[in-house]
Amino acid sequence: MRILVIEDSVLIQRALVTGLRRAGFAVDASGDGADGLQRALGVEYDAIVLDLWLPKLDGTEVLRRVREQRDDVPILLLTARDSVEDRVAGLEAGADDYLVKPFAFAELVARVRTLCGRRYGARRRTVTVGDLCVDISGRTATRSNESIELTSREFALLELLALRRGSVVPRRDIESRLYDDRIDPTSNAVDAAICRLRRKIDRPGLAPLVHTRRGEGYSLGMTRSP
Q: Which overall architecture, per CATH, does domain 2-119 show?
């Protein structure tokens, strides 16, 4: 999942980016409202973490303008404004969630994951494909009741395929949602990630679940997509 963090505090922004990347997200960051708005409208993010006190363009105005053009992207307001009136105003302006500083980072990650899951219609805590069970909340996966050890990036790829199970996920979607500005779009990162995931999911003797649709993308399911 790809996240945009719009936060002007260098220290807070750095902590958010580092922590969210360690949690398996691809993360882009902006330090002012004008640049943040341009990024929010130019890239299809799975969620946006938005501060309200921003230079160049206030966070409330960023929220309003994003909502005018993009109603589908979840937005979490992260701010020191802690009054009930501020929270109500933020939610009524179009925010999906509101978290007050200072905050527990584990709570932030949980809220962001929930927002991303809602975007894909994932209300359940687990997704099952054949004998593969993907626990979205617990960030674990098992197949035939055996635990599968995955890195945070590998789980993020599996989560994306599982949330769109049975459908072909275009390569460009994987690039966009798993890799941020640090990745070279000409690299074979997606191919290598799929290969590593397939080795762990489709072990010898088990029916293949990770499928390649040549020229289109990848899918997770019991049979190859038609």
A: 3-Layer(aba) Sandwich (3.40)
Q: 138 to each of 48, 127, 135, 165, 186, how far by Cα in Å? A: 22, 12, 5, 19, 33
Q: Please report, for the chain, the start and end positions of each structural domain, with discontinuous segments joined by +.
A: 2-119, 126-220
What is the CA angle 204-210-211, rounded to 5?
A: 115
CB contact set of 153 (below 8 Å; sequence gap of 6+): 24, 178, 193
- So what CATH class is 126-220? mainly alpha
pLDDT in tens, 130-166: 999 998 878 899 999 999 999 888 998 999 999 888 8
pLDDT tens-place string over residues 20-53: 998 888 899 999 999 999 999 998 898 999 998 8
